[in-house]
Design brief:
8 strands, globular, alpha/beta
């Protein structure tokens, strides 16, 4: 498993978070609900963050946007209060992503996620749609393999092996899959994108498969892109729209 330089690059977005922090299964989680309070009480969108966690304002704003489309959104802090620091964005930072990952691998991050999932089940949640970004996309695949989630969305995924993970998805998962991909992505390059289409496309995956492609965008664009760049702004907004449409259609 490896990261790329773009996994820790990005821009902080402007806005005010409208959700709140709650403990779910003992795990701190950012939770956002529709402003009118109207949503299906048996359904949750699980927001699985990149290495900056739900602490990053960008992630909170995205979670709020999903909530405004009629869903309760839960973004667990599976990094146990120690996500990658926001100042890793800054030039000259000494942050070492691989050193950080040494204590933030599956052994440390899956248990808190499982606690949240168990607590949601206890609360009567029967339908979960998951949207994962970079690091979080790996867990979307894992939860889909276990058929814990009903619908999958991944944006610029990290740690997805092509063709192995895609073939396994075809064989064992029942969750419709949307992939938001882009032009410049060392972690999910054009070759992997083409393999995904070959393995899952053309009706091969019966529950449903779609891949969106955002020209001129770079890994991280759906969460941490430079919104002063028209192509990146269009890509970020397009990836969000495609995710919402997929969830509304499939969940």
């Amino acid at each position: 498993m490896a990261f790329c330089a773009d996994c820790v690059k990005g821009f902080k977005h402007e806005g005010t978070a409208e959700g709140q922090w709650e403990e779910i299964g003992g795990i701190k989680s950012y939770v956002s609900v529709p402003p009118d309070g109207e949503y299906a009480k048996d359904t949750v969108i699980l927001y699985l963050a990149d290495v900056f966690g739900p602490q990053l304002i960008n992630a909170q704003l995205l979670a709020d946007d999903f909530a405004k489309n009629g869903y309760k959104v839960v973004a667990p802090d599976y990094f146990n209060g120690d996500p990658a620091p926001e100042d890793a964005f800054n030039p000259g930072t000494t942050f070492d992503i691989m050193k950080w990952f040494g204590s933030h691998g599956p052994e440390q991050t899956r248990p808190p996620l499982d606690k949240v999932l168990a607590a949601l089940k206890e609360q009567g949640i029967t339908k979960i749609g998951a949207t994962g970004y970079c690091f979080g996309a790996r867990y979307v695949f894992d939860l889909a393999f276990e058929n814990i989630i009903k619908v999958s969305v991944v944006s610029h995924p990290t740690f997805i092996k092509a063709p192995e993970d895609l073939e396994k998805y075809l064989e064992v998962s029942k969750a419709p899959l949307l992939i938001n991909s882009c032009t410049f992505d060392e972690r999910f390059p054009h070759e992997s994108q083409a393999i995904a289409d070959q393995v899952l496309g053309d009706g091969k995956f019966a529950p449903g498969y779609k891949r969106e492609y955002f020209e001129g965008c770079t890994h991280g664009f759906a969460v941490r892109g430079d919104l002063t760049d028209p192509k990146v702004k269009a890509g970020k907004e397009g990836a969000f729209r495609s995710a919402v449409t997929w969830l509304k259609t499939k969940l």
